Amino acid sequence: MSHEPLKSTLRIVNPQIENLTRQELLALQERRLVAQVRRAYERIPFYRRLWPKEAATLSSMAQFREVIPFQSKQDLLVAQDQMMVERVASPGSQVVSVHMTSGTTGLGQESHPLTRLDVEAMGSTWMYQAHWAGLQLGDVICYTFAVGMQTGGLSSFPMADRMASRFHQTGPYPSEKKADYLLQYQPHAFIISPAYLTRMQAIFEERKLDPRVVMPQLKCIFIAGESYTIEWAQRSMAFWGVNISEWYGLMQGGLNQCFSCETGILDQGERGHLHAMEHRMLCEILRPGTNDPVEPGEEGEMVATSLFREAFPIFRFRTGDRVRRMSSPCRCGRPMMSIQAGTIARYDDMMKIRGQNLWPDAVDKLVFENAAVEEYAGLVFIDPQGRETARLSLEFRPSSGLDAEQRKRHLSALADEIQGKLNVRLDIREADYLSLPRFEFKTRRWTDERRAGRSFVKYTA
Ligand SMILES: [Zn+2]
Question: What is the pTM of this model?
């Protein structure tokens, strides 16, 4: 594989940041981190109680790692009614918006107050991805996730605003209608989850529409919210005829923080880079158990600190997200550290079934290797005999052309393959087409009845 640098085709948004050396970028990050910690200590009673006095005069990244403790989701959910007094660094009158988290963990939804500058930072940071993906000011964007009080949708507005975009919120509508709007409004880009992109492809196929013909303006598709296989990425890019760009972000960080560059989610057939916005975030990737920083090429938990949150600064937030640090620099030559596209998962998604660890993305890989499969759902439960049982229900694409006998053989071969590779025997059955849930954001294909109380945002088919 060639590692030709991309210099001539780079779309630089901010040369003052993107042309820094790695050392210069880290020095800038450290200066901003020190200022953010001192400010939070001075203004926020909660942190004055939680942190040692050294925080008031913090002077380095090394000292930050020594004295500032981690924060969990539970920490953020405590005393939400006292938040404006105890946790917010800006006067209440400067808070212009409150975003909620999606609540996908089942622990509860956090509220995140934002000032005008916080909202502006969301938009101007996300703009990097839009430009790197090839969008220009004034381009048309369709946004397919539902927008309510949740940040997933709300944070898209400031980005569209910065891009001077004509912005269509198609989230509230059923899938068929969303497809109609894509055709009607002819966006240059649309924003969607990987599982939902598969659904959209099925609708186009049913209508015998080729997006390369009927959506000639389309430049790029933006995805987030779940992992996917390399084969899925190749198939999707071939079908839509454009590059796909991924982002990773979390409300606790205050902004989307890792983005694909010009190369997209696949670079020369291998998984691409998501560049961390290190001038606005500190992205620590730590080994579970020891909390040591991972080496390049290794997996660990993303721990996020925003350097750009005025109202509600959060430090060392343990995301529970499993990310892989890239082992070699990206061909674009930007100075930011990067994580691997397509493989972000949640540590609490890992299930233990009859003593074996089972990661949903490992099952995804085997299930979706066959393009005839459109969607699946997994269920883990205790059967009447008290045994832990895992059942997979799987939908075939109507366009696959497989007859009943071929589908049956496929299910049995898949069960054998999963058992051989993942050491867990799954009971695999066929489900009627469109009988399984699809997810608008943060896809969760597995229900573990041993763990109650998790709720997800589903879309209407
Ligand atoms: Zn790059």
Answer: 0.84
